[in-house]
Design a protein that fits this description.
CATH architecture of the largest domain: 3-Layer(aba) Sandwich
Low-confidence stretches: none
Strand content: 15-25%
Number of helices: 16
Mean pLDDT: 95
CATH topology of the largest domain: Rossmann fold
Strand order of the largest sheet: 6-5-4-7-8-10-9
Largest sheet: 7 strands, mixed
Order of helices and strands: HHHEHHEEHHHHHHEHEHEEHEHHEE
Distance between the termini: 47 Å
Number of domains: 2
Helix content: 40-55%
Structural class: alpha/beta
Number of strands: 10
Shape: globular
């Protein structure tokens, strides 16, 4: 294979890749200082921002100028700073907010990445060694951590929920169970777009109150009940459709298989299972979709000892759990729909 001298463009690209974590750290500080909220009503000068955030003016100016280089704010010629449309999405109350994702990634996930070599060597998560918690233990013990995690899942689910509701044909569905549904963003979007449906949101107790509040705000509480429970033990039975978004990728194969077998016990012969997951390509290429999947795959390894899976791996798990896969369809932002039915039923054909 021929080796060429690096061009200035490729050198700059590589330098940015190596030091890329500075942007997420700068964004997290902007969120914690509430800079997007302070600038939302209109531009402010440095003195006003420094006073409101109780920061050193010179250091704050350096942060703001760094944020201007990544299109989060604008530095005007008169010494005022203004927020950009992208920067507005760091506000907690923005309809397309990524406020909590910024905090969760930098405060909960980023500390794990310096231990990536340990996970690569062992194939195991480093979360317990780094944080003292394993899996989702912290969310069950720490209400503040649970709120950040569940709000993060709302933000990320919001990005694809409407596409999921659009892409799947709910015509023959009357009842739906959202398994591991968190604060209910996915089932809210589905119920809004399919008025004939009624639903059940099923998750651990730390998510249920937030889910009830979300459904109340959406005026959907009469069409959706919230049940607390553990999907390793049981799932409410008898519904037409069971949806699991970003659940299976959280668990290694043995635990994922247990979840799917619990689903199989709940799904009636005419019922269906719908997984909303990233599907890992057989070969990785230099493209944004594959980068998103690769980043998530490594994050799953670090944080949970799990993985993103290929279509063949999903099929193997589902067959082992008693399902046949009937459809795999890409929807949005590297996510796909994986639809399955109980093995041996007439609908499997």
């Amino acid at each position: 294979m021929e080796t060429r001298d690096p061009t200035p463009q490729s050198t700059s690209y590589l330098l940015n890749l190596i030091a890329g974590s500075w942007t997420s750290d700068a964004l997290a500080v902007a969120v914690e200082l509430k800079l997007p909220d302070l600038l939302a009503p209109g531009p402010l000068n440095l003195a006003e921002l420094a006073s409101a955030t109780r920061c050193d003016p010179d250091a704050l100016a350096r942060l703001l100028r760094a944020l201007a280089t990544i299109d989060v704010c604008i530095e005007g010629p008169d010494g005022f700073f203004a927020i950009t449309p992208m920067g507005e999405r760091l506000r907690e109350d923005h309809p397309q907010s990524l406020h909590f994702w910024t905090l969760y990634w930098t405060r909960s996930m980023r500390p794990l990445w310096s231990h990536l070599i340990e996970s690569v060597r062992t194939g195991h998560s480093v979360r317990k060694a780094v944080t003292g918690f394993e899996g989702f233990e912290r969310q069950q013990q720490d209400p503040a951590a649970a709120a950040i995690f569940n709000n993060t899942m709302v933000e990320l689910t919001r990005l694809v929920a409407s596409e999921v509701a659009r892409a799947y044909d709910f015509t023959a569905v009357r009842t739906i169970v959202d398994v591991g549904g968190g604060y209910g963003e996915l089932i809210t979007q589905i119920l809004r777009q399919t008025p004939h449906l009624t639903g059940t949101l099923f998750d651990l107790p730390h998510a249920i109150e937030g889910a009830r509040q979300r459904l109340d705000e959406a005026r959907l509480s009469l069409r959706c009940e919230c049940l607390a429970g553990d999907f390793f033990d049981w799932i409410p039975g008898g519904a037409d459709l069971y949806v699991l978004k970003s659940v299976i990728h959280d668990w290694p194969d043995d635990r994922a298989l247990t979840i799917l077998k619990t689903c199989r016990r709940a799904v009636p012969p005419a019922g269906r299972l719908l997984l909303v997951e990233r599907v890992r390509p057989n070969r990785a290429h230099n493209c944004e979709t594959h980068r998103q999947i690769a980043r998530s795959d490594l994050a799953m390894l670090l944080g949970l000892g799990s993985q993103e899976r290929s279509e063949a791996q999903f099929r193997e798990l589902l067959v082992s759990a008693g399902f046949d896969v009937v459809r795999v369809e890409a929807v949005a932002l590297a996510f796909s729909l994986i639809e399955a039915v109980p093995r041996g039923t007439s609908q499997a054909g």
